[in-house]
Amino acid sequence: MTLSELVTDWGGFELLIAELNKTGDVTVEHNVVLPGRSGAPRQIDVLIRHKQGLYEHLVVAECKFWNAPVDRATVDSLATTIREVGASRGVIFSSKGFQSGAITQATAENIDLFRVRDLTDTEWGGPGKIVDFFLHVISVAIGPFQMHDILTLPGAEPKSANVNLCLGGDEKSKTPITWPGRQFKTLEEAIENAARDAAKQVYKAVTFKHEDSFNLVLRTRITVNFAPPQPIVAHVNEGVILIPRATLEIGLTTNQSRLIIDRSRNHVFALAVEDCVKNCVTAASRRVDSATTSLSPLTTVAENPDNPSLKNGSILCVWVGGFENFDAFAKIKPGSSKIELAPPPPEGSNP
């Protein structure tokens, strides 16, 4: 997709310029010979015909695939060709730009000078032609919850101190509690909140690699300790228990994918056309499913510091709502992690 990949010689450059001018509004011809007013034939690299009403305008384009900027003499020669063939306008396309004298002469002769080059990363828009970032899809699993040193109140002893908790799913149990200094209404709400808080504290937005792959799944088992200044008061089994201390096992899954996107992959070409007389730049692109070229002016847009653009190598984090099953963490020791290759994408998918 770079200019050097698209064009290797002057003939290829002429063909590229011919295609670049096929916007659907004009007729483009390559390597045309027109008779001059003096009788001598004039060879035209690219001839652009634009019909408007009853009139046809001719634009003569010269293509210079040189190793040096175009000089003033070349502009003078084109000015003569324009007069000889009765063209409305002339333009020179160059791969290396123009000397200052050429620009001065072109301004006087009303000739356009265009330098064709690759788009810069800034002109592509952040982070550039190649977008290379990591996606972390993070999910949390809730495991065993164990209460320690529970107490009962005289006259309010429950029929059983066992608490049957149903966590993480759509149909959760509801065990009323009073937790001094906290607003939780049920033990289940408190546990789920603690699981998410612990997961966010443990998670680190850093990339990891294994066996030369970045497409990985990292599972970490975490023990969360509940030790509030005052015991949690839980209403269970028609009684009250005090929970001074408890532990919760949670699992943290980080599913990492590396996403590399070439923004030019759906284009035949995407180039910058720099107007060296008017000092402006136009993007010229052709999609693979199109027969015409799209032209759009390029302007510099200042980055918003409050909403910075994506940087290559950065990590995009997505936290999954709800909770996953804890079974994947059953064989992982508390405080330990396990890394494995991510499953391949489904057949026929387009990552």
Automatic annotation (TrEMBL):
Residues 9-120 form the Restriction endonuclease type IV Mrr domain. It comes from the Bacteria. One of its GO terms (molecular function) is endonuclease activity. It comes from Paraburkholderia tropica. This is Restriction endonuclease. It holds the Pfam family Mrr_cat. InterPro entries: Restrct_endonuc-II-like, Restrct_endonuc_IV_Mrr, tRNA_endonuc-like_dom_sf. Keywords: Endonuclease, Hydrolase, Nuclease.
